[in-house]
Amino acid sequence: MNIAFLGLGAMGVPMARNLAAAGHDLVVWNRTPKPDAVPGARSATSPAEACRAVELAITMLADDAAVESVVFDRDGVLGALARGACHLGMSTVSVGLARRLADAHSSQGQGFVASPVFGRPDAAAARKLWIVPGGTAADVARSRPVLEALGQGIFPMPDAPGAALAKLLGNFLILATIESLGEALALAEKAGLDPERLLEMLTGTVFGSPIAKNYGKIIATTAFEPAGFRLPLGLKDAKLALAAGEELNVPLPLAGLTRDRLLIALARGRADWDWSGLASVIREDAGLSPRR
Amino acid sequence: MNIAFLGLGAMGVPMARNLAAAGHDLVVWNRTPKPDAVPGARSATSPAEACRAVELAITMLADDAAVESVVFDRDGVLGALARGACHLGMSTVSVGLARRLADAHSSQGQGFVASPVFGRPDAAAARKLWIVPGGTAADVARSRPVLEALGQGIFPMPDAPGAALAKLLGNFLILATIESLGEALALAEKAGLDPERLLEMLTGTVFGSPIAKNYGKIIATTAFEPAGFRLPLGLKDAKLALAAGEELNVPLPLAGLTRDRLLIALARGRADWDWSGLASVIREDAGLSPRR
Amino acid sequence: MNIAFLGLGAMGVPMARNLAAAGHDLVVWNRTPKPDAVPGARSATSPAEACRAVELAITMLADDAAVESVVFDRDGVLGALARGACHLGMSTVSVGLARRLADAHSSQGQGFVASPVFGRPDAAAARKLWIVPGGTAADVARSRPVLEALGQGIFPMPDAPGAALAKLLGNFLILATIESLGEALALAEKAGLDPERLLEMLTGTVFGSPIAKNYGKIIATTAFEPAGFRLPLGLKDAKLALAAGEELNVPLPLAGLTRDRLLIALARGRADWDWSGLASVIREDAGLSPRR
Amino acid sequence: MNIAFLGLGAMGVPMARNLAAAGHDLVVWNRTPKPDAVPGARSATSPAEACRAVELAITMLADDAAVESVVFDRDGVLGALARGACHLGMSTVSVGLARRLADAHSSQGQGFVASPVFGRPDAAAARKLWIVPGGTAADVARSRPVLEALGQGIFPMPDAPGAALAKLLGNFLILATIESLGEALALAEKAGLDPERLLEMLTGTVFGSPIAKNYGKIIATTAFEPAGFRLPLGLKDAKLALAAGEELNVPLPLAGLTRDRLLIALARGRADWDWSGLASVIREDAGLSPRR
User: Fold this and answer.
1) Closest residue, chain A, to C256 (C-alpha)
2) Which listed site, B199, C116, C241, D215, has its alpha carbon 20 to 30 Å from A138?
3) How far is residue D274's CA from residue D229's CA, in Å, rounded to a whole number?
4) Residue A229: is it exposed, middle or buried by C-beta count within 10 angstroms (0-12/13-18/19+)?
5) Residue D117: beta bridge partners?
């Protein structure tokens, strides 16, 4: 398939490489040009140039502002994509932006599938992402071969805002896991238990999800640097989850608690830490040092 | 081994039966006599009578008050157990009581192992409990054959208060899971997503612990009755976790949030619901009915 | 002074009347024309028409969106006001909008004073408002005669964003008072105390601020309708306080708690209640009816 | 009147002196004898000795444990007080203990009035206490001359537990005031406003209760030492308020928030600070130093 791939960050590069390896015909674009990032792909100088002759335009960008700019600006996706082509938006964005994108593309006779992913760069490289596409059945169907080249499992949601929400709720659950393990391990440590041994018990019995194992290990060893997912990005997603709740009059006090923890971590100068670094604030509330 | 087994409730009966089946010589006692509950076991008329000639006394009782009464009352375990014998306390109790029991038995030349378990009655019957013993190395060692007849895995903690705390933290993590899934699924439902389908995505990817699968299913279908673990018992454990934190100046705001949810559920008359029924309060806060 | 007065709502009408009565030469504008609202004042058909020949333009509008539109739209204040004239913005707005207005007017050679007020319509009519102006010393000084015709006390802040923040913090403190009295009186009522008598004790001793007396009375009698200040407006201000905190990495958990209460009240259909109706949610959490 | 006064702490001494000055016939007792603390009073060597021949026994002690010991121990008030005499308990105690005391004295044919006070030692010395008596109408009536010699205002509650609760709710409202002003002033300071000037505006307009003025000043100047009321005592009262709520299934999330703040302050070694020092934790959450 002819595909435009916009956004060559830590996630975008391995994803684009996998698509090229799967035999797709790729044109790539990045705000800061990276001409050699994806072997076999052509480079475009603007989103519009990249999108003009493709069936599918994929965006994998940092946040709402980046997506808005790349799609709605003069040289953006919306104006350049052909009628009948489809935009596959794989960034984590607000529910409101997913809705706005679906409406805008629909009004241009284009398709739109919000298709956020779970997984870090190593999972992207290994084609092990979990993908949550939301759009019309036809648009999801034609995106499927591409999604299968990128991930290990596909869980369709009924529409684009639903897919955006599902992703935000997943990130909220990660924050909730960090908060709950953070509280448990801080108390355990202060009570004289070995956090790693307690964690082994917990994740070796009934609490053993991949998320609990992965983040529990970071928290128990306080290995908050280097960041796998930077703390300000986690804060952004906590806010987006809260905003999705506010839109429907649904309070999310646990999301609010984690939002506050992340703000405190930023107030203490930890913008470069992993988002699991919110547990450092829990430690300090217990009278422990931020890191062991 | 000659064993006294005190407490023939929903958990105690299958556990005692497994011990009898494993060939141990059992004398049992229950506040309300249940003479035929454990085939092959003798019945005693008081804790003291049960404990007089045994190497090991096991208690599996409802709460701190029940354990205190059975151990410290005139006809209790403490006064009747021989020097050198050991008390294996498998109830979920406060950290403070675990410490007090360890001290009291030690002053009598008796052993004490706090040995709480994870698992419901069906797991007890199937010898699938997870067991967290805490005591001296020698006392844990001599309890081990008994524990192996009851569970599928044993995770020793350094002492009795540590074992009690590990269990309370486990129950806190269950409450945290209920809270986080409750918030996520309430917002999803209000946004028009199918909670069961969303849950399938979440637990089919990176959030799939046994606890998340089990309680997620209950919450998504709002099947809060009949209770597997009654709501007031969950509240009791939330309070014990908070008390353990207060003792060490460790705030646990997420535990406090769930404590409040459970209080609200009780204020609304749901004492007979499962503790996962705290999610009914989350639903009402979102403007949804308590059950679908 | 030649004054344009934009916004003839429940607050604007009595304020404009007081200015006319004080001898100022007034031209008024309202989105929905109200030609006879202010005796002696001329009516303009657009903000621009109203502002063209005045020394001072006063805005008293519902929210950020209304102010943005009236100031920045083609026929708005910014384009019409003469160099050297001043905009006195008396609406409750976000810190961010106050900053943006100060910058925009400054770049046009115009003055800007953010000058929010404390007080309800009856206080406005009685010239009993408390006014918190923030701008350059010169701009505040030339606004002073006008402010003195409107209120009983003037508390200058160093700049426009500071004045906007001071007002939002005041509204946050009202929400905090409602929350704290709501919790106290709900527990008292459930314990069999008479809430009104308890309140009399509290406000008759050391808790007797005007806010505590006024809102305490409403809460004790659950007189949440008719609204003096509608619940969604209170929610808006709680969000603006939280946003001001987020901008500076300052968590405000008590503001977050009241935000959640207000969301719950809206989810239960209470958009027409007074913002003190957040106490109805506290009552329901205690198992009481929303109103006595 | 013949009066026994038990408890010569910072509050008890000035109160006892005022009673002696009012012409009452006083016998005093303190755990650590203070023979010259109250001119004109005799000293007893035990609570029982002090109580044997009096019409009224007043207790002014630190906490539940002290009151329980002085009343229920072998040489305590309960056994020594004559039938028909009355115990006036002026300490701040739990609702549960107030109930238990009322029951115990009643079963001995004695009266009991829980009669907690608002005010610090300087108010006690100046006879400016606010007093909240709760007991039978007859017992409150006969206590009245004594109460009038101690305070400036008397607000009867229907019974002893009600009076205990009213006092705890008052202390909860002080904590709520500290929390709300702490959040507001921390954000203001970080936004560049002068906290003292903002406070002047707030308490000079509609937020001006004695509590807000007094504690606002401490918070704005971060004068957390020396303590007027030590932080661990504030924590004790926060816990008693929460316990009163738990007994009736009434969650008090704002009380819970302040409890957590106080725990954090203790975890950071601030046991000697004033309870308003909870605001130091708010400051640190905002990235400010604990004190300016």
Assistant:
1) A256
2) B199
3) 5
4) middle
5) D131
Residue C252 C-beta-side C-alpha neighbours within 13 Å? 31
> pLDDT of D127-186, one tens digit each?
999 999 999 999 999 999 999 999 999 999 999 999 999 999 999 999 999 999 999 999
Contact B97, B116 (CB under 8 A): no
Report the alpha-carbon distance of residue A162 to residue A144 in Å, rounded: 18
Residue that the structure tokens 């895995």 belong to? B153
Predicted pLDDT at C38: 97
Q: Which two tokens stand for residue A131?
A: 């993908």
Say whether A132 and B209 touch across the interface (CB within 8 A). no
| DSSP single-letter state for residue D89 | E
Tens of pLDDT, residues A160-204: 999 999 999 999 999 999 999 999 999 999 999 999 999 999 999
Q: In what order do the strands lie in the sheet with D117-118?
A: D117-118, D129-131, D151-154
Give yes or no for residue D35 having a pLDDT over 90.
Answer: no
Nearest to A264 among C251, C259, C260 (CB): C251
Confidence label for C189 from pLDDT (cuts 50, 70 and 90): very high
Output DSSP code: residue B127. T
Find the length of chain B: 292
Count Cβ neighbours within 10 Å for each residue of D15-36 and write b for 16 or more, e otherwise.
Answer: bbbbbbeeebebbbbbeeebee
The CA distance from A69 to A79, in Å, is: 12
Partners of residue A264 in chain D, C-beta under 8 Å: 285-287
Kindly give, in sequence order, each residue whose CB lies less than 8 Å from that of residue D263, ignoring residues fewer than 6 positions away.
B245, B246, B249, B250, B251, D235
DSSP symbols for C95-137: HHHHHHHHHHHHHTT-EEEE--EE--HHHHHTT-EEE--BS-H
Question: Would you state the structure tokens that stand for residue D83, as one six-digit string?
Answer: 């039938």
Residue D132 to residue B144: CA distance in whole angstroms: 59
Residue D167: closest CA among D273, D216, D105, D240: D240
Indicate which of D152, D157, D187 best probes the interface with C, i.e. most C CBs within 10 Å of its own CB.
D187
- To the nearest whole number, what is the mean pLDDT of chain B? 97
- The span from the CA of C92 to the CA of C60, in Å, is 8
C-beta separation of A77 from A104 below 8 A: no
What token pair was written down for A150? 């990128």
pLDDT at A24 (0 to 100)? 96
Alpha-carbon gap: A260 to the closest alpha carbon of chain C (Å): 5
- Give the chain A residue nearest D262 (alpha carbons): A285
- The token pair at A211 is 């998320």
Of the candidates C9, C14, C53, C57, which has an alpha carbon nearest to the alpha carbon of residue C32? C9
3-state percent helix, strand, coil for chain B, nearest multiple of 5: 55, 15, 35
